[in-house]
Write a structure and sequence with these properties.
One of its GO terms (molecular function) is glycosyltransferase activity. Keywords: Glycosyltransferase, Membrane, Transferase, Transmembrane, Transmembrane helix. The chain is mainly α. The chain has one domain. The chain has 19 helices and 2 strands. The protein has a two-stranded antiparallel ribbon with strand order 1-2. The longest helix is centred in the C-terminal third of the chain and has 31 residues. The termini are far apart.
Length: about 400
């Protein structure tokens, strides 16, 4: 084989690459029509996701499996209204379960319905965040279906979790409102932020990290600071304190039980350098496990761009969007503080779902970047197509499980 033939063989696309290219081109036009469609003003991608979640909920009910650990906990707790449950467990998700018991009874069905309801509400809030960032059409669809390429959202959220789900919903809703606050000077908006922040904290206490970092990021942006009403922080604190006063008082009486969960962190006593390396390695692996499928599909979408100009435009657009800079700075702050806490404490175990506060906004960020890098929308349609495939796979898996398989 000559040197020219060798170079041609090396540059020839692989069979897998050719098939992926053929798939994306085949679905490009239908996906474009799909992402542009609306029904009663509601984007078709959001309606499709809500329909998929509803079908999956029905299949989960048909499955009839014994309750998971999280579900069993909710069954034991959802027997009365309280400011907190089982040691120091926050109350909001259990309140949601109890609110649905009038429709679904006091058994496992109400617990499963609460999960379906909160996951659906999460995607509605995510659509609100995309809208606040100015995403429309293909970019909006990618911001939503991209979440299905995050395994912790697209799969795990439908079959497990309880408190983390409510925290996800209120965290995304909080960030969406804060992004709106970078463009609108309204006192009522800041009062609403206080309400949402309080419910986020009462869903899972670690949302305090996200809320605190978001406000630091907001304060670091001069464009955002100029939009803050004079009594905005007062309205925020007033509403938050009004909601949190009684639950915090309840919690302070039970702080001694916080040590019950310390074993989850797998603290190691010994060589500090080895412990730090183990903690850092597991932290990086958890980040990769959270976002890897989405990032791989986004890179697949970028393969069709000629040159690097589009990518440069995307990064330049990051600097011009106050909302995007707010989210990026919030994510970086949360990840940085998380890393410092792991290294300082000697923790070596990092559960992927602990990264919800830092990485749950990844899909809208990727959609924004692809929208600016490829104004034709093709790159975002690649994300929509593969996100739709991932969503349909979850339906297929739940269908198989409903027959007692797996």
């Amino acid at each position: 084989m000559t040197s020219i033939e060798t170079r041609q063989a090396r540059s020839a696309p692989s069979t897998l690459s050719s098939r992926l290219t053929a798939f994306t081109h085949a679905v490009d036009r239908p996906v474009r029509r799909f992402s542009a469609a609306q029904l009663a003003g509601v984007p078709a991608p959001l309606l499709a996701i809500l329909a998929i979640l509803a079908v999956n909920f029905g299949l989960i009910l048909l499955d009839g499996r014994p309750p998971s650990a999280d579900d069993a906990e909710q069954l034991s707790q959802a027997t009365g209204w309280a400011l907190g449950y089982s040691g120091v467990q926050p109350p909001v998700h259990t309140w949601i379960v109890m609110s649905l018991q009038s429709l679904f009874g006091e058994g496992l069905t109400a617990v499963l319905a609460a999960r379906w309801f909160v996951v659906s509400a999460f995607f509605v809030a995510l659509a609100g965040l995309c809208w606040a960032l100015g995403l429309k059409g293909d970019a909006l669809g990618a911001g939503l279906f991209g979440a299905f390429l995050l395994p912790q959202i697209g799969w795990e959220a439908q079959r497990t979790f309880s408190h983390s789900l409510s925290a996800l919903f209120f965290s995304v809703l909080f960030v969406a409102l804060l992004v709106c606050a970078t463009r609108t000077r309204r006192l009522s908006l800041w009062a609403g932020l206080g309400v949402v922040a309080a419910f986020a904290l009462l869903s899972k206490y670690n949302t305090a990290l996200l809320i605190g970092c978001a406000f630091v990021a907001f304060a670091s942006l001069s464009d955002a600071r100029r939009m803050m009403p004079r009594f905005g922080p007062v309205a925020f604190m007033a509403m938050a304190v009004l909601i949190l006063a009684a639950p915090v008082s309840w919690l302070l009486d039970r702080l001694q039980t916080l040590d019950d969960s310390a074993k989850k962190f797998a603290f190691v006593e010994g060589e500090p350098l080895w412990t730090a390396a183990l903690g850092l390695g597991n932290y990086m692996l958890a980040i990769a496990a959270y976002v890897a499928p989405l990032m791989l599909v986004a890179l697949l979408g970028l393969l069709y761009l000629e040159g690097r100009g589009g990518v440069s435009v995307a990064f330049a657009a990051f600097r011009t969007s106050t909302g995007i800079r707010l989210i990026l700075r919030t994510m970086l702050l949360v990840l940085s503080i998380g890393l410092v806490l792991i290294l300082a404490s000697g923790a070596t175990a990092v559960e992927t779902y602990w990264l919800h506060p830092a990485l749950v906004m990844s899909a809208p960020l990727v959609a924004f970047a692809l929208d600016r890098a490829d104004p034709s929308g093709h790159a975002n349609r690649v994300v929509i197509a593969w996100g739709l495939v991932a969503a349909m796979v979850t339906t297929l898996v739940f269908l198989i499980r409903s027959f007692g398989v797996g």
